[in-house]
């Protein structure tokens, strides 16, 4: 028979673990680069840009468009990697609480 109280307890436990995992996402930092390391971007697990580092050799007016493209590329790479690490953190935090239900993706809760 279905035990509603047990299920409610599991839901509360999962909510607590999800909150803890979300708090930890701010501590995840990922750095990615583009242009052979001439542009570097750091993003946290909450997909927030933390910093951008630009090589001095790119600080010329004639390189402005290339620099803009490199910044976008580095930020996108860092954001993608941060998302992967954030999903893994959420997965680890909720492991064993809820049954493995195919198609149930809790990553959207972050």
Question: Mind explaining what this structure looks like?
Answer:
By secondary structure, the protein is an alpha+beta fold. It has a domain of 71 residues: Ybab, Chain: A (2-Layer Sandwich), CATH 3.30.1310.10. 48% of the residues lie in helices and 16% in strands. α1 packs antiparallel against α2. It starts with a helix and ends in a 16-residue tail after the last helix. InterPro entries: YbaB-like_sf (IPR036894), YbaB/EbfC (IPR004401).
Please tag this protein with its features.
alpha+beta; Ybab, Chain: A; 2 helices; 110 residues; rod-shaped; three-stranded antiparallel β-sheet; single chain; coiled coil; Nucleoid-associated protein LDX50_10910
Q: Layout of helices and strands, plus pairs?
A:
Layout: H1 4-25, E1 29-34, E2 39-44, E3 49-54, H2 64-94
Antiparallel strand pairs: 1-2, 2-3
Helix pairs in contact: 1-2
Keywords: Coiled coil, Cytoplasm, DNA-binding
Subcellular location: Cytoplasm, Nucleoid
Organism: Fulvivirga sedimenti
């Amino acid at each position: 028979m279905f035990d509603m109280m047990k299920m409610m307890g599991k839901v509360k436990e999962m909510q607590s673990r999800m909150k803890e995992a979300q708090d930890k996402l701010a501590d995840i930092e990922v750095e990615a680069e583009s242009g052979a390391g001439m542009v570097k971007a750091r993003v946290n697990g909450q997909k927030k840009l933390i910093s951008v580092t630009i090589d001095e050799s790119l600080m010329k007016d004639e390189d402005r468009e290339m620099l803009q493209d490199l910044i976008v590329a580095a930020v996108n790479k860092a954001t993608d990697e941060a998302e992967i690490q954030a999903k893994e953190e959420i997965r680890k935090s909720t492991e064993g609480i809820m049954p493995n239900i195919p198609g149930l993706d809790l990553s959207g809760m972050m």
